[in-house]
Each structure stands twice: as structure tokens, then as C-alpha cells.
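Supplementary material to the annual report.
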Amino acid sequence: MNRWLRAHVVAARRALQRLRDDAWGTCLSVVVIAGAITLPLLLVSLVESARQAASRLATDPVANVYLKAGADEAAGRALEKLLRGQPGVATVRFVSREQALLDLRKVGHLSELLAALDTNPLPHALVLRLENREPSELAALKGFLASQPAVEDVSMDFEWAERIRRASVLLQSLAWAVSAALGVAVLFVIGNTTRLQILSQRDEIQVCRLIGASQAYVRRPLLYHGAIQGTLAGLLAGGITLAVMRSIAAEVRQLTASYGGFEMIQPDLPALIAVSALAGIMGWLGAWVSAARHLRATD
Amino acid sequence: MIELRAVHKRHANGFEALRGVSLKVAKGDLVAVTGRSGAGKSTLLRLMAGIERATQGDVLVNGQNVGRLREAGLAALRRNLGLVFQDHKILFSRSVGENVALPLEIAGVPRSETASRVRAALDKVGLLDRERAAPVTLSGGEQQRLCIARAIVHRPAIVIADEPTGGLDAEYAAAIGGLFRSFNQVGVTIVVSTHNAQEMAALGCRVVTLDQGRLCP
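Predicted assembly:
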């Protein structure tokens, strides 16, 4: 084993020894750091699940214009002609009430219900594909369509799906901001643990320095201490997140079954390893910053 | 090997511990620095070890100007010195053997080699049977010998010992003086500060005396 590697093995062993010697303090620190990691991890997992679900919703900019019951096909065709030249409207398709009934009969579970009806209850309709999703323009168009004498109702179903999609994007940004803030908190927690380590080992550090220990020799066990704590906290946070996501997954699936189901995204093994590694790196970094700051005071 | 050129040291409180001290310690010398309390003995030794910096003048150890060394250079210098402290500086959280092993651990010596060298050093100071003991169970004389074992375990060319016999009875003091004599006989350069000039002179030491920060002629 070369000298450099030996120095690191000695430092890692010493860090493990310190963690073991102060098992209770180590557990407390790990739990606190894990809490700070779990929150954003859970938030990111939930937001990612919501985002994926939102992406499955129909967000095509389509508007359905239902004509009044008394409006005949000629009125519908006239309106179709009028709307073709309307700004913001890409395409217009007239759907007669007969065609609508035929289409509806193709939907298996409704065919028996429709067969029992004496008359066709469906109105003539127009299906519009719109050119943009700007709320103000959509509102203006909706108002224009609703003001037409033959129009009974205008439906823009994609609006709520679009709102959910936008909200999920916003939540995702929020989740990352929370992650960044709590990441800084992790740095501070580990930095403070390192500071306490330096204070409790002040005599040992001073003796080591007096007999020729370099700054790197003194700093190394502190860095391993921070990195090990971070990694352990990352593993614990991953475990908690997985447990929480699994416990709510079945409930959410049941609750959203009528909307086509909603599968929670659970962090997989590579993601958990990445989180632990990242927490370990943050632990190392926090310890480095704190050691650089506080070791000078012991000299 | 060690040279002080017109060294002055003024402490932060304004006290002038050393006033223009010039001294040469050649390779293989055994030098005893004597003087009353507050004469500047400990300060002189701390300057040699790079623990303090001279206010004026130069301190050269192995040709290196200690006052101009940076942090890494100072650490490297101290790794090549054997230091015995007046207050022992023992780590009570570690065993006797682990305390002695510390300079070897810092120097990156393999564990297998460390074990044999620690035992050899403890054997030299008569503490081999206390290797696994807690330092707190040692007597004052044994703690001093532990400190000496830690100073010689990495086979330094220079040993600097600050009052190694301070507070010990005559028998222990003589035994420790004898230890330094034996190290010196195998070529180690030794600088010792002591109150007991006669005892060190009897061991064949070159005795230099400090009085109020000045070397007596």
C-alpha cells in the first residue's frame, strides 16, 4: 500500500472510530441530516409523479361548441363557415347530432343506455382546434363563440389539464428550490458537527500539530467523518422516502382509479445510490469548509 | 545542525524572553541549557522546534531558516525532530503504545513496522510492559519516559527536550539523563533544558546558561 493510500485508510479508520465512540451523537446527527434530505427527496418524487400524470392528460387546444337543441344543421354549417375565418382558430369540424350519436354508441358501456332512448338527445356540435393557449385570447374567443345565437355552450376541456401541467412545472421548480435550501442546511449541520469535533479534539489536534502533523493529516479524518455521516443520512433518507412512497402508492392508485390511474414514481436503486453519494459529497464539503475555518484557531 | 544568530524574542505581553542569543549546536552534540525560571530556556527550545518565531535574528535547523518556513515546511521540520515537552503533551484517550506510535502514524509508517518500532522505543525507556496501559495509570516519571519514547520512536537526528527531569526525584532524573546520554552515544544531537546544571555536566553535556534572556559567557 502506498503512503498516500495508507494515510487515507488511517484517516477513514480514525473517523469510523470517532463515529463509533460517539454512537448516540452520530445517530442524532444522521437523523437530523436525513430529515433535511428526506423532505426535498419526497417533494421531488411527488412532484415528478404529478408531472408525469399531468403529461398524460389531454392538453391539445381543442374547443367543443354545442349548438342549441333547436338549431338545425344549416345553422351549424353557417357557423362552421363563419369560424373558419376567425383569428386563432386553426381548423373547424362540424359534427352532426346523428354522427355524435353513432360515435357515442361505439363507446361500449353507453350503447345499451342509448338504445333505450326514443329520440337523439345530442345537439349538433363544432370541434375547433385552436392556434394558441394564451388565457386572454382563449377567454376572448370563448366569449365570441358563446355570443353566437345558435350556440348553447362552449367547452374548453384542455384548460384544466393545462393548468395542472403548469402547476406541476411550478411545483417542480419549487421542489428544486427547497432541495437547494435544505442542501445548504445539510452543509451547515455537518459543518457544525465538524466544528464540535475540532473543539472536542482540540488537545489531540494541537499535540499532533506540535509533533509534525500537517493540516491535511488533521483534516482528513474530519472529512471522512463528514462524508460517512452524509452517506449514512442519504441512505436513511432514501429508505424513508421509499417507505413513504410505497405506503401512499396503493391509496393514491385507488383514489385516482376513475381518472385512469395514477402511479407514484418511487426512487429506484440507482437514484438512492446517487442521493447517498451526493449526501456523502455534501458531508465532505461541509466538513472541509468547517475544518478550513476552525482548524486555524487551534494552531 | 542548529544555529541561532542574534535571536531576540519579545512575547505579546511585551516581555523580552531572549536578547540577542547566538548559539551553535553541532551534529552529535549533547547540550544542556540551564538557567533560572524565566531565563528563556523554554523559549529558546520552542524557537528551535519552530513552535514560536523569533522577533529578530535567525534560527537555522539543518540549514533551514525556521522563521521563513511556511506551515507545510514547519510540519516537515517537526517530523524530523524528537520533541519532549515540559507538560508531556500525552493523549490520555489513547494507550501508551498508541501515544508512542503517533509520530510514525503521522509519518505514514506501515502498521507492521510501527508495532515493532513502538516496542523498541518503549523497551529503551523501560515501559515495554505498559504498552497497552492507559497513560493516566502511569507515574510522573513513567509519563516523562513515555514522552521520551514518543520523541525517539521515529529515529530523529535531533531531540529537543524541555525540562525532561522537572518535578522528578533525583533517581528518576538520573535515569532520564542516562537515557539522553545513551541516545547521544548513537549519534543523536540532543538539546535539553534543565535546572540541574551539575547533573547534566556530570553526564558530559556541554552546558550553556541563560540569564534574563542572555547567554552567560
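The CA atoms of residues 101 and 119 of chain A lie 10 Å apart.
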